[in-house]
Amino acid sequence: MNRLTLTSLTLKNFKGIPYFAMTLNGLNTSIFGDNATGKTTIFDSCMWLLFDKDSQNKKDFAIKTLVDGKELHGLEHEVEATFDINGITLTLRKVYMEKWTKKRGSATADFTGHETKYYIDGVPSKKNEYTAKVDSIIKEDIFKLLTSPSYFNEQVKWQDRRKTLLEICGDISDAEVIASDSSLLALPTILQGRSIENHRKIIAARRTEINKEIEKIPVRIDEIQRSLPQLDGVEKQSLEAEITQLNGDIDEKMTLINNIRNGSAISAKQKEIQEIEISMLQIKQEHQANSNDKVYSLKARIQEENSNVTILGSKIESIKQRKQMNVYNINDLNDNRERLLKEWHEVNDRVFTHESDCSCPTCGQSLPEEQVQSAKDKALAEFNRTKSERLESIQKKGKQAKEKLDEVKNANDQLDKEILKIEGQLKEKKELVTKLKGELSTVEITIVDILENPEYATKLEEKQLIAEEILELKEAAEQSIQSIQFEVTELKIKRDQLQGELGKFAVVSQSQTRIVELKAQERQLAAEFEKLEGELYLTEEFIRTKVNLLEEKINSKFKYAKFKLFSEQINGGLTEVCETLFKGVPYSSGLNNAAKINVGLDIINTLSEHYGFSAPIFVDNAEAVTKLIDTKAQVVSLIVSEADKVLRVEQIENSLEEAI
Question: What is the pLDDT of residues 26-66, one digit of tens each?
């Protein structure tokens, strides 16, 4: 196990103490002092030196010296301690001071804040180096657990205390819990891979849902029963027979009405009208056949010639488009001829020039006259040949452009002739259409209206007379029909009333069926609820078993401290807690200071074994304890002593005796 002990401690201007120094040499030490003499300040100084916090885990606390409630300026607040770590000495020093800055042009310095200086073994260090050094020895949270008997029980949240205990002792798996009690063997099948906690949530939700459904069922049954129709003195078979008789009477009355409406006299008259309408249709067809044939013929001819006019117009537009394309080609060809003509003149105007070097490229002497003239003649011949070939090529292209231009112009002349020809044809067609439309108007004026046809008019008059006779017959029959319809209405009213009474039997039957269904549902829900109660009981037994096993396992790690990890609720359920007990008395209520301190030391002993590290333990209010239990760590006891107005330090030889 790694062991950290405090060898010496020096304070300067720290929390009102001008100077204090003590040498411990790693031994257990008692510090005596009256109230407000600075005992707790000793513990605060060590914590601030290591972690920038006081013994109550507060980062913001008064380090500077106060006079009448005001800070005393110009002081350096310093803590220095020497530690022994497994035989290796380490000295840490921290100085907290004010910063005074003299601004430009000012004769005095102004207070501008604070700064902290850090030293490791006397060597100035940066803050991150200093923090890393402390952290390499032991983590802050572990150090606090191992140095204050009250820290675990009074400053650590119960959830974190519980987590630490489980970390030390190890949790118990569900399989281990189930294996410890044969009555829990059915749980894995019930859980189906879910955790106990999740399955209990499912049970709780389903139980609530079932309770709501069960509460609703009696209300629903009562509503159905109260809405049942009364059937006293009513027989279903008698109602059905009477309804059948009424339906037969209604059918007979309706047949009688149809017979009156379709009487033989009316039928004969309606047949005469049908025959007259056939004759009138034949007369109309013959009348229209004589006048409409010529109209149809003229309309067809006009449509045909209009189509020809459209076709000829389209041809003219197409030829004009072709002609326009030729005009574009003519413009391009003319531009090309002008470009070729300009190029021909440029080539033709070129004049031979000879600027060849007349000296020997090797020796630099002038070449003979005959060699110079020969070179000049050769260059002139080449110039004339190239120029002649270029002019000939341009003339050839110009001739080709002229031929293409003449060809396109001739094509446009032919297109102009074709346009004139088609325009003549178009004019003739338009004149013909106008002529045909005139003929059509003349023919349509001469057509005689069918009503002016004597034979058709006679038939129409006969039809009207017969229709009037039918109307008179119907009016006479309608009076009889109205009387019968009144009887039919009364029969239907009576039948509907009886059908309403008969419908009550169906309502009663459906309601009774629904009541049976609801009762069956109620039994089913009750059975499911009972099953859930059994599952809930098993989960609670599982939790109780786990609680007992877990608490036994954890408590076995401690000599005096015991821990309650679960609390039973009013409804019988269990909730997680973490309460420290000593002889059955809770730490948070009823436990005296002596027991609290020794229980805290017992917890530190176990934690030290778990983390493999021991650190100086500061026991505040140590006067409350007759005898501290043994611990392998160095113990610094802070004891209230009214007689000691100044702090007094005594070293104590470490004892291996145990006491409580």
Answer: 999 999 999 988 889 999 999 999 999 998 888 888 888 88
C-alpha triplet 645, 650, 651: angle, nearest 5°: 160
Question: What is the β-pairing status of strands 28-33 and 648-652?
Answer: antiparallel
Q: Give the torsion sign (CA, 326, 331, 335, 337).
A: positive
Q: Is residue 492 part of a domain?
A: no
Domain holding 71: CATH number? Answer: 3.40.50.300
Indicate the SS3 state at residue 285: helix
- Quick check: 525 and 210 in contact, CB under 8 A? yes
> DSSP alpha helices (H): ranges in 556-644?
593-611
Q: pTM, whole model, 2 decimals? A: 0.52
Our CA angle for 345, 350, 355, nearest 5°, is: 170
- pLDDT digit string (tens) for 307-354? 888 998 888 888 889 888 888 888 888 888 888 888 898 888 888 886
Dihedrals φ, ψ of 102, to 5°?
A: -95, 115
| Count of structural domains within the chain | 2
Last residue of a domain, one of 452, 481, 505: 452
Residue 583 within any structural domain of the chain:
no
Give the strand order in the sheet containing 585-586: 562-568, 574-582, 585-586
More reliable by pLDDT, 390 or 289: 390
Which residues, other chains included, contact 352 with Cβ-Cβ below 8 Å and sequence gap of 6+?
Answer: 379, 380, 383, 384
Mean pLDDT for 437-446 is 77
Kindly state whether residue 224 falls inside one of the protein's structural domains: no
Look up the domain containing 26 and give its range.
Answer: 2-156+613-652
Q: How far apart are the two ends of the chain, measured CA to CA in Å?
A: 25
**Domain boundary pick from 452, 487, 504:** 452
* DSSP states of 466-530: HHHHHHHHHHHHHHHHHHHHHHHHHHHHHHHHHHHHHHHHHHHHHHHHHHHHHHHHHHHHHHHHH
Mean pLDDT throughout 554-583?
A: 85
Q: What would the pLDDT profile of 500-551 be if each residue is shown by its tens digit?
A: 777 777 887 888 888 899 889 889 989 988 988 888 888 888 888 888 888 8
Rounded alpha-carbon distances, angstroms, from residue 644 to 33, 162, 640, 647, 649: 5, 41, 8, 6, 10
